[in-house]
Amino acid sequence: GFPRTVAQAEALDKECQIDTVIDLDVPFETIKCRLTARWIHPASGRVYNLEFNPPKVQGIDDVTGEPLVQRDDDKPETVTKRLQAYDTQTKPVLEYYREKGLLKSFSGTETNKIWPHIYAFLQTKLPDVSQKDDATPR
Fold first, then answer.
1. HAMAP family, alphabetically (predicted)?
2. Euclidean distance between CA atoms 103 and 23, whole angstroms
3. SS3 6
4. Structure confidence at residue 94 as a pLDDT band (50, 70, 90)
5. Per-residue b or e along 95-125, where b marks 16 or more CB atoms closer than 10 Å to that residue's CB
6. Domains, the chain, ranges and CATH?
7. What are the strands, taking DSSP E only, across the chain?
8. What is the pLDDT of residues 57-89, one digit of tens each?
9. What is the pTM of this model?
10. What is the CA radius of gyration of the chain?
């Protein structure tokens, strides 16, 4: 996400008024498991996930029968370093927005369980776009 540093957050404040910041608080182990379970078929770009969308035969593309590969940035050691760097950079940004009273955090490990809470929260922040207003051009 953006901003990733307090300096970027301060620069963003000069450009526009931020009234809400959403933090998706997902345990690093969950993120690591999802990313390291991702494998791709390089020629087509097809993406498999060993937990959610596994290939029919482990390590083999369903369509071509060619080997799948794991991107370097999806390997466990790389993911761990990326998450540690993200945590170091993000904590001060979250604190910056928390101190301004703009931060709303949502914790969980599954999108379908977190999303209803985010959606309900956003409904309190956004005008009701589901009702048609003929006077307002779209």
1. Adenylate_kinase_Adk (MF_00235)
2. 7
3. helix
4. very high
5. ebbeeeeebbeeebeeeeebeeeeeeeeeee
6. 6-124 (3.40.50.300)
7. 21-25, 38-41, 46-49, 103-107
8. 999 999 999 999 999 999 999 999 999 999 999
9. 0.73
10. 20
